[in-house]
Design a protein that fits this description.
40% of the residues lie in helices and 22% in strands. By secondary structure, it is of the alpha/beta class.
């Protein structure tokens, strides 16, 4: 059993506490979803169990984490450069002793996970794998260790829809306890039977955690209802209190005025007014005590504020992209061909496809075409490091002109994305995956891009931020060309869904995204 006893996680740079006095035991057949906004400590809590040494440079861990007798399987959100340079064959042999390998189980897992055996070789590095292939390969290696506890940090990242469906079944049917972080709301809804919600209140000055033995939909609905009910009750009591205080002030001012006006030659009247003032003051003290007992406005972490400029608008009928690509290749490897894609403003198009089909490579070709046309576009890559200097801070990443006005605008916008003043100056390297995603969204908004090219844009965003992001993109006046396997994102944002195959692009059918279409029709 995995046990947390009074665990506190504190950032050493800011002396800001992410998690305070956290106690919890992961019990048999629990499927625990860790939720919360980006940077609230979800991934850090998993690392504190599986890779505590990786936190020593920037995080102080207090309390006790008991894993005695457990084999902890762990899928990190991001692989280190040292791991990415290893070959797949070398990584597997390092993870699992070949002399103890049960080949019947090994081949069963290969089929179940859908990972090609020929991708395990001495000439293929982990860095050469697609995003989805990395996830599948890591999960294969971890399951061959026969874990008794499984920690998964964004396991659905980059998985194609078929693989996400498999992952859901895997988590649901798992006989060992699972603790996972995911942005995928459908995955949370279908798999979690316990919720741990990490929050940062008072502008990230006070941490709070909630443990609920509930499904994700029940937790969210209950939380929303509690917040609404408490807000309504607090507002009603505040209005009643204000009305009483207004009446009290009127009485106080009248008695005070009468005291000043009464003649000194009328001591009996003066005494009556003095007694009356004593009663009025006593009433005021009683009201103050009542104020202390009033229902407080609910203290909860607010979602991010995302909004693209209303001025961005591409006319209907304007051709944004007319791509004609005979061969789709990466390096010397041919992935497919006969690609034809026409996008007319303000159309929103999502591209689906199995892992390794070349979706990211296709987006890079699309970007090249947009550059030729001189269209103002914004790009959010799947691998954030592709366009980020890890030594830069958030403000530097978003700065173009360096003017005082721009600096103020950038800081204001980062604040709306729930960055604290300190986090704005942290190196990007120290920010969470979700915070880096927010930086890309901020950059596209501040640069007023007309076309957004997005590669798995919601992959690291909190499910609580997801509705805000989807609403903003749905209302965006320009065009969007995206790759995503986030089913709710695809369902709510896009006008057209295409499937990338070896012989080209074609309209995706209900077979490829059936459960999404089913929800939409329902």
């Amino acid at each position: 059993m995995l046990i947390f006893k009074n665990v506190t996680l504190t950032l050493t740079r800011d002396l800001r506490t992410l998690v305070e006095d956290f106690s919890f035991s992961l019990q048999h057949e629990m499927k625990v979803a860790l939720i919360g906004e980006e940077g609230n400590g979800k991934s850090t809590l998993l690392k504190a169990v599986a890779e505590p040494e990786s936190l020593r440079e920037y995080m102080e861990v207090e309390g006790e984490i008991i894993t005695a007798g457990e084999v902890v399987g762990y899928l990190p959100q991001v692989l280190s450069e040292a791991v990415l340079t290893q070959t797949t064959a070398g990584y597997l042999s390092h993870t699992v002793n070949s002399s103890e390998l049960d080949y019947t189980y090994y081949y069963s897992l290969l089929r179940e996970i859908g990972f090609p055996e020929d991708r395990i070789a001495d000439d293929i590095r982990l860095g050469d794998l697609s995003g989805g292939e990395k996830i599948k390969f890591q999960l294969l290696c971890e399951m061959l260790r026969y874990p008794s506890v499984l920690l998964l940090d964004e396991p659905s990242n980059d998985l194609d829809m078929e693989s996400v469906g498999w992952l859901e079944s895997f988590i649901e049917s798992s006989k060992i306890p699972v603790m996972f972080v995911s942005h995928d709301e459908l995955l949370l809804e279908r798999c979690a039977n316990t919720i741990i919600h990490l929050e940062q209140l008072m502008r990230k000055r006070r941490p709070k955690y909630t443990v609920a033995r509930l499904s994700y939909p029940d937790y969210v609905q209950g939380r929303d209802e509690r917040i609404a009910k408490q807000t309504q009750l607090a507002q009603k009591e505040r209005e009643e209190y204000d009305a009483k205080m207004e009446r009290y002030r009127q009485i106080y001012q009248r008695v005070h005025h009468e005291q000043k006006s009464v003649s000194r030659q009328d001591p009996s009247v003066a005494k009556n007014l003095k007694d009356k003032m004593r009663s009025v003051k006593s009433m005021g003290k009683r009201f103050e005590r009542e104020k202390e007992q009033m229902t407080q406005r609910p203290d909860f972490e607010e979602s991010i504020a995302v909004r693209f400029e209303d001025s961005i608008s591409i006319p209907h009928g304007k051709v944004v992209l007319d791509l004609d690509l005979d061969v789709l290749r990466v390096a010397h490897r041919i992935l497919g061909g006969n690609i034809r894609l026409k996008v007319v403003g303000p159309e929103k198009v999502c591209i689906l496809g199995p892992n390794g089909a070349g979706k990211t490579t296709l987006l890079r070709n699309i970007i090249a075409e947009l550059k030729k046309k001189g269209i103002r576009f914004g790009y959010m890559p799947q691998e954030y490091s592709e366009m980020m200097d890890p030594k830069q801070n958030a403000i530097e990443f978003l700065t173009v002109t360096g003017t005082k006005e721009e600096h103020t605008k950038v800081r204001t916008y980062l604040g709306s994305m729930n960055f604290t003043a300190e986090e704005m100056y942290h190196p990007i390297l120290e920010l969470s995956g979700g915070q880096r995603a927010k930086l890309y969204f901020s950059k596209m908004i501040l640069e007023e891009a007309e076309v957004l090219v997005l590669d798995e844009p919601t992959r690291n965003l909190s499910p609580l931020s997801g509705p805000e992001i989807r609403a903003a993109l749905r209302e965006f006046g320009g065009s969007i060309i995206a790759v995503s396997h986030d089913r709710r994102f695809v369902m709510e944002v896009f006008d057209r869904v295409m499937l990338l195959e070896k012989d080209g692009l074609r309209q995706a059918s209900a077979v490829q995204w059936g459960d999404i279409n089913q929800e939409r029709r329902g």
